[in-house]
Amino acid sequence: MLETEELKKVFKGKVAVEGASLYLDKGEAVGLLGPNGAGKSTTISMISTLLKPTSGDVRLNGKSVIQNPSEMRRVLGIVPQEIALYPELTAYENLKFFGRIYGLSGKALESAIQQSLELVGLAERQKEVVKTYSGGMKRRINIAAAMMHEPEIIIMDEPTVGIDPQSRSHILEMVRRLNREKGLTVLYTSHYMEEVERLCDRVYIMDHGKIIASGTKEELKNILSNEETIWIELNRPNEAFFQELKSFDGTRKAFETEQGIKLILPKGSRVLGKIFQASERHRVQIVNVNVQTPSLEDVFLHLTGRKLRD
Amino acid sequence: MYAFLKKDILVLVRNRTELAVLLAMPFLLIAILGFALSGLLSGNSEALSMEVAIVQEDDEQQGLTRFAEALEKSEMPAAEKRRLREAAEATSPATLLQEILKGESLSSLVKVHEMDAAAAKRALEQEEIVATLTIPEDFTFQTLQKMLLDAGDGSELQLMISDQAATQAEVFQSILDEIVRSLNFESAIFRIGVEAGAEETQPQFGGVESISAAEPISSFQYYTIGMAVMFALFVSGIISSMAYMEKKQFVFQRILLSNHHSFIYLTGKAISAAVIALCQFLILFFFSSLIFRAFELTDLSFWPGMLLIAASLAVCVGALAAFLTSLMMRFNNDTITTVFSGIVVTIFAFLGGSFTPTDNLPVFIQQLGGWTPNGASLQAFLIWAQTQEIGLLWEPLSHVLLVAIALLILSLLIFPGKGEA
User: Fold this and answer.
1) What is the CATH number assigned to the segment(s) A226-293?
2) Cα A291 to the chain's mean position, in Å?
């Protein structure tokens, strides 16, 4: 349905996106993962026709949209990272405005407003001005505004940033329903790996402006099929202990957090004894040790060397 | 386009700070400047209006008869005696004085009551009047003797003024001084004419010289116009500032994604600014007329011209909003709007004469002010208020519309193209 071909964007001599090729089939939910500055938002802007690529193409049903963006804009809904609403207006007035600029009027407009409000669960608070809403409610109206013209494709750029778990869960369930029940095609970017794992069938991973991996969740996890992850939870961090674990034979990657250390090693590595010996030497108290099969987060770490929220 | 307009108006109405800037502040300034500077402009005599009493102790007819008798006894040629007698009858000073004080030119300022001495004293004590002018006994005879024959010591008017209304009393005294000075000057000229043997010289006493045929402008009228044209400029700043917020919050991009060309958005901003400026004008003029009586609300022949000028200024304000929006979109920086509202509007207000008339400023500043949207429209408003001649509006309104066209062209050239905004 939608594909990009070798998209490239250069800003003042600096390459923001280089050779980004991806596709979305009709009714698919696809995740676009990448740390800050990876080029996700620039890619989204080019796909949504807001930004002209330096080179490459975006095609909708086989037709280029670079020179003729109107068809793409008709079928596309965008949920930006920002709360793209008028805080002084009520939810109803906001939706009415966005409906009107999409050419809706009369009963069709009223019906679209009420459907969108029902969808995001804010029909009863539609007459309140947006600035009085909680962060989660604003995010939900932000989504409702993108749904007013019943788009076929929706691009959601981190739609759950900075909101409470309850609103987050509501939004995720709503997106899932739109995708599964109404066949809406979704391109979803997030800092939360679990959201992408829960919603998306396929995932693209971007870093430094390039797509560095893609595939279904299983395909991506298979990148680390010959490896296993050992999660060592500590009562407090210890740099010398971390450095010793990092220097073990076979350690592919090692990451330290406040809670503990994560090691990615070849499958079947027998290092548990060595870990406990090292902990005694460095007087480190191990709270918990867990040997895991790799997650998408591990794949992301493996590929980019950074955590998703870095 | 209606959706854009309605949205902009709703957003503005819900924003109290901006509403205060657009409506409350100019109204406050009209009140302050209108009251404080009421004496600066010629038309506003309300604050200085006064009631005075004239006590007539002089018998004018008797004075004229005595003057004629004195002439007969003199040794002048008969023809000259006749001329002086005619002049005395034509220019009796007591009548002349009362005609001037009760005349049309002073009627809005001075209300004259004729009283006897006791009633005048009482009225002065009870502050019903601010001054008592006594025309003393023998005033006509002695004044004519002095004026026409340069004989005797003349006569003195007696003025009693109230301490409680010092300003008005002082103004009345100044008016009297001016009348007396004028009479003395005219009589001196007449005497020179008589001595030179001029045949046709006639004394021309009294009267107030008119500098202009135009209706005077009151301070409330001036500052209603001055503040309205100045604060209309703030509409442009506020609308472009709203556009910046729309861009920053991704609403602008959302509008573009609805398949609206960016020029439609720009046109929407211009129309919103123009409509809001026009509403601002109507509100300010209505309330200023209602509360300060700046203009006569029921004068139906007056308002169409005012509306025409306001509409022209509104078009220019719309073009200015489009220009500022384009600049802000191009440079992605709302400092432009801040500088405009904080500095440029003040400079324009000074050049255009919003705070004080520019008549006393250098000619090049007056000319420069005539090309600012507020200055040109202020001139147009003043011309219309004074003359109500539509033909005279062409020059200032052509300035307003030319500036509007130039700003619109610049906006279209500056506004970022596809993929740049």
Assistant:
1) 3.30.70.980
2) 27
